Amino acid sequence: MDYELTEELRMLKDMAYKFASTEFPPLSKECDEHEKYTPEIRKKAAENGLVGAWIPEEYGGAGVGILGNSLITEELSKVDMGIGLNVVAACFGCESIFQYGSEEQKKTYLPKVCGGEWVSAGAFTEPNAGTDVAGYRTKAVKDGDDYVITGNKMFITNGTVCNFMVAQCITNPDQKKHNSFSLIIVPADAKGVTRNKIRGKMGIRSSDTAEIAFEDVRVPQGNLVGKEGRGFIQLMHFFDTTRVMVAAQGLGLSEACLETSIKYCKERTAFGAPLGSFQLSAKKLTEMAIMIEALRGLVYRSGWLIDTGKPDYHLAAMAKFYSGQTAVFCANNAVELHGGYGYIDEYSVQKWYRDAKILELYEGTKEAEILTIGRVLQSK
Ligand SMILES: Cc1cc2nc3c(=O)[nH]c(=O)nc-3n(C[C@H](O)[C@H](O)[C@H](O)COP(=O)(O)OP(=O)(O)OC[C@H]3O[C@@H](n4cnc5c(N)ncnc54)[C@H](O)[C@@H]3O)c2cc1C
Known about the structure:
- It is a single chain.
- By secondary structure, this protein is of the alpha+beta class.
- It has three domains: about 110 residues, Orthogonal Bundle (Butyryl-Coa Dehydrogenase, subunit A, domain 1); about 110 residues, Butyryl-CoA Dehydrogenase, subunit A, domain 2 (Beta Barrel), CATH 2.40.110; about 150 residues, Butyryl-CoA Dehydrogenase, subunit A, domain 3 (Up-down Bundle), CATH 1.20.140.10.
- About 50% of the residues lie in helices and about 15% in strands.
- Strand 9 and strand 10 form a beta hairpin.
- Helix 5 packs antiparallel against helix 8, helix 8 runs antiparallel to helix 9 and helix 10 packs antiparallel against helix 11.
- The longest helix has about 35 residues.
- The chain binds flavin-adenine dinucleotide.
């Protein structure tokens, strides 16, 4: 058993951190304040092979696998989780195309996203159904050679900046709920697509989030991803992979909280001694460090298992759940250790506190993860 990253993966990790620590800080505050998306950084990241890095080289990616992609995500999120998301989620619509799409779809969409030319989105959640994935209502009805799509999608990452989205639609309403869905590629500029940016997010404010309406949107039937009626299962598999990426976001953010807090505890004094010399402060740092190491184990192992053809989706759900717990805990402790300074924007910890919370909400709420983990435990 070898727990060490290979030399190649260590170099990738260092490169991703160098990229983020050079490119993100000049824009970080402005993007957070004004909810600005960062296309220029995404394009530069693509030039460095950081967009869709898990995608094999034949489709334009760097072929570094899910573990490699997690290391990239960790390092970008250590600097700014929102801007990092703009890089790693640019290919959010590509997972399903890669896993289930035709060769033609893979060749059309994946290289353009990896190359920084296009952005994708995964449009699943609806205004009235998020956790209840089988409750989505958007319909795609066959008409001639096309599907005609009607419905609404909510909270879609990259919604207003994407070139295409992969949308979950009901294509077989006569089938049982779970067999009624299909994933369909919808060009963002198709007639009848309306996209509105959602403003006022608590955190990851540089990430684009949108509400999308489909009003009689006509797309060719060739835009179906995989088989009709398999959309629900495909979406579950999509989450199994993307949850590792989301878990890596929490790992990076938590590490940033710990590193910054250690530095502050050494520098800041109270009662004539450094903060870190007080046992209550040391306890906070210690607990953060333990949780981070446990999370690292979950993230790296679940990524490595996917890459070696032994995916453990149960472990990926655990990684995602524990990532939210760790990030929220670490960000809270970081704010507390910084005292009043932790509450103002002179230090990044207040931003990390706001950013961390999304990890308990998107890609499955923490309650949804608990339900999944509990169900698998009892099915064995
Ligand atoms: C910034 C942001 C980005 C996002 N990006 C995307 C994206 O790119 N694509 C996309 O499709 N979606 C995206 N989402 C949507 C996100 O995945 C959903 O918000 C999330 O799945 C929860 O769904 P909901 O908001 O409808 O909450 P609900 O499902 O209404 O849940 C509300 C509360 O009830 C709880 N709950 C629900 N059912 C149960 C149950 N059976 N047992 C116990 N508790 C339960 C939930 O855990 C939660 O606490 C994004 C959301 C945000 C905020």
